[in-house]
Amino acid sequence: MAPSAKRAVAYVAAGAFSAAGVALAVSHEYTKRLRRSAEPEDPELVLPAEVVHHELELRDGGTAHLVEMGDGPAIFLLHGANLSAEVWSYQLRDLYPDHRVIAMDLRGHGLSRPGKDDVTISAMAMDVAEVLAALGIERAVLVGHSMGGMVCLRLARLEPGVFNTAVGALALVSTSAGIGLPVLSWGRLASAVSLVAGAGVGIWRPGQGLPATDTGYLASRVGFGRRPRPAEVAWTLRMLRAVEPQVFGKLVGEVLGFEESAPFPGLGVPVVVAVGTSDHLTPPLYARRMAAGFDKADLVEYPGAGHMLMYERREQVDQLLAHLCELAGADQPPGSKSTLTAPVALASARASTASRQASSG
């Protein structure tokens, strides 16, 4: 196996789902010290009391739960694996005065329940298409974080007609189009990783696999870059522990086996790919390759940030999404490039079109 392939396997095996396997090897005392240093809970991490809750019936008997605030151009937010709509609390608070901000619990997460189509990325993509239609949304900014970005890519593959109608711009945050490696037995690998990861974040109930440990805080910490706020790390762990173990295990296989690296020609909407330079779960290399698969895409790299950009770069992500709303509502000639304006570009210090960055991978 080539060195680059070995590195990719290492990222998946050690990094998937908050690198819980690494956390298990860290001493008990060190973990306790980290947890003692945590800041008091930040009330802004909780969903605002003003959000409107929606529950929609899905085609397969499942239900989709959404929270919404504000009026104006729509921003539709999708969270990552084992998180929930709560992860977008900052953006709901910051953007609602001028935007209609909607965050969806993907099936199996939060208050959304899967139907007969089970918990798969393809089913989640069809849920998004169904919800966008049910809400009558036009030219929204569709935002996917981590696995949520994978859902966006699968939606673009299965239902490209949604773009330039319900969706006017796309933001792929801390995500990947797949590692592209021929692994023979995803099932066995997924089972092993889910056991280790489940023990690391402490989600397993008694009698359901490895016992819970107090390494969960550190496992969650690995998803962040330099100098994270302990309150945000602890809140992320809270979301991880809220997911049912059987859902957790299924999603490991879904994410490990995901593959949408083929180009997306003619999608017709502005695309921005955002990544932290210290993201160990979906590293910049994957972001650069993914961005190169679109006719028009900008790549924004945030120095020192990790996987949780909505927390770690709150103001910059707000600026990026607000600017994408402007692009989504503007008429753009076919084949034109989206252009990041100065405020967004300066927030990163590394903003460029995908065509220049892809070659550096």
Model description:
The chain has 2 domains: 3-41 and 181-243, no CATH class; 48-177 and 257-360, Rossmann fold (3-Layer(aba) Sandwich), CATH 3.40.50.1820. Helices cover 42% and strands 14% of the residues. It has 14 helices and 9 strands. It has a 9-stranded mixed β-sheet with strand order 1-2-4-3-5-6-7-8-9, with helices on both faces. Helix 3 (89-95) crosses helix 12.
CATH homologous superfamily descriptor of the largest domain? Alpha/Beta hydrolase fold, catalytic domain
Strand content: 5-15%
Q: What level of helicity do the residues show? A: 40-55%
The Cα radius of gyration reads: 19 Å
CATH-defined topology of the largest domain: Rossmann fold
Text of the CATH class of the largest domain: Alpha Beta
Give the uncertain stretches in residue-range form.
5-35, 204-213, 332-361
Task: Walk me through the topology.
Blueprint: H1 3-24, H2 28-36, E1 52-57, E2 63-69, E3 74-78, H3 89-95, E4 100-105, H4 121-135, E5 140-145, H5 147-158, E6 167-173, H6 186-201, H7 216-221, H8 230-241, H9 245-256, E7 271-276, H10 284-291, E8 297-302, H11 309-312, H12 314-329, H13 342-348, E9 351-353, H14 354-357
Task: Describe the structure concisely.
The chain is α/β, with parallel strands linked by helices and 361 residues long. The protein has helices at 3-24, 28-36, 89-95, 121-135, 147-158, 186-201, 216-221, 230-241, 245-256, 284-291, 309-312, 314-329, 342-348, 354-357, and strands at residues 52-57, 63-69, 74-78, 100-105, 140-145, 167-173, 271-276, 297-302, 351-353. The protein has two domains: 3-41 and 181-243, no CATH class; 48-177 and 257-360, Rossmann fold.
